[in-house]
Design goal:
Layout (H helix, E strand, L loop, with lengths): L6 H11 L3 E5 H14 L5 E6 L6 H10 L2 E4 L2 H10 L6 E3 L6 H9 L3 E4 L2 H11 L5 E6 L21 E2 L3 H11 L3 E5 L9 H15 L7 E3 L17 H19 L4 E4 L3 H4 L3 E12 L4 E5 L8 H5 L5 E3 L7 E7 L7 E9 L6 E4 L20 E6 L2 E6 L4 H5 L6
Parallel strand pairs: 1-17, 2-3, 2-10, 3-4, 4-5, 5-6, 6-7, 6-8, 8-9, 9-10, 12-14
Antiparallel strand pairs: 1-11, 11-12, 11-16, 13-16, 14-15, 17-18
Helix pairs in contact: 2-3, 2-9, 3-4, 6-7, 8-9
Length: about 400
Amino acid sequence: MYSPISNQALIDISNQYGTPVYIYDTGKITEQYQKLTGAFQKHPTRFFYACKALTNINILKHIDALGAGIDCVSINEVKLGLLAGFTPDRILFTPNCVDLNEIIEATEHGVMVNLDNISILEQFGNKFGGSYPVCIRINPHIVAGGNYKISTGHIDSKFGISIHQVRHIERIIKTLGINVVGLHMHTGSEIKDIEVFLEGLNMMFETAMRFPTIKFIDLGSGFKVAYKEEDRETDVQRLGQRVSEEVCKFEEEFKREIEIWFEPGKYLVSECGHFVVKANIIKQTTATVFVGVNSGFNHLIRPMFYEAYHKIENISNPDGAQRIYTVVGNICETDTFAWDRVLNEVREGDLLVFRNAGAYGFEMSSNFNSRLKPAEVMYDNGQIKLIRKRDEFNDLLRNQVME
């Protein structure tokens, strides 16, 4: 049975590798993947890890070993997936706003290509005809997700071809002989209501009836994980049951079997991640008490970018009296991690951990203010492995050309 990494282990790793540091517990990834496969075992279902959430090659290798596929949004993610060991038949390439050359390069690697606009569909058809199978991304015009910035299926979204342009898609496919084997949609992230998935699924069913060569329907992902104690995850067990029921009904009408695909990203890696920082200063003003840490939105941008909540704990003083703090970073910009957060008393030098830091944490980090990116460490079955060295000063100059 999975046993989560302890606070003492987080402290030991932080003392060994310094702070700030990202620590990933692979046991949690395995647990989340097993939840999904267990929930959808009544009907053929494939899972492609949305690797934009976290692309460290060691994490990719772990997910490959679990048997998942990988969903990539850039050609370099495709190359990372291949390097990690994913075979081309387990790689889905879902870019947007790229030119045909990047699509062509993906076909040279033999991966499944997901086309999301009319222009590229026509260009692809003119070049390949029906010689290379493709998937088409549909925008279902469904508003979903925990934040408008991560809602991708609404009418103003740049993603996918409008559901109202299906007749246009049919004309292009028939004229150019394109071999369409999959339909795809993705409405957003952090979806709690499984009816959103079922609404999209039925919309895909209606569309699939117009494309007799379809072999799979991809519902994207957006499964929610718990950030706060009162949060609830997406009920994947119930969703798996309902999806299986609906697909079986559709297959009777469609007169053939069809696979269902999902692309979990945050669901697999969010809770595996623990971001540990050090309290540099305690600063009391007329309005609040600040805890200034040795990090900022250059390392964890989600609170500033998405107004995202991350649970913060003082693992150096877990029994200290509770006080109210505003937790901020050390860069020359407003980089507030949390306002009015209740924490066990924080002293200068204490270690604080941000939970749920595995998805879009290090992946969206930068060298803003010429500060160095943190190290990444993998906690695998009790074994501690450094999987990315902390930046050094020379890394800031690595690609600069000095006269």
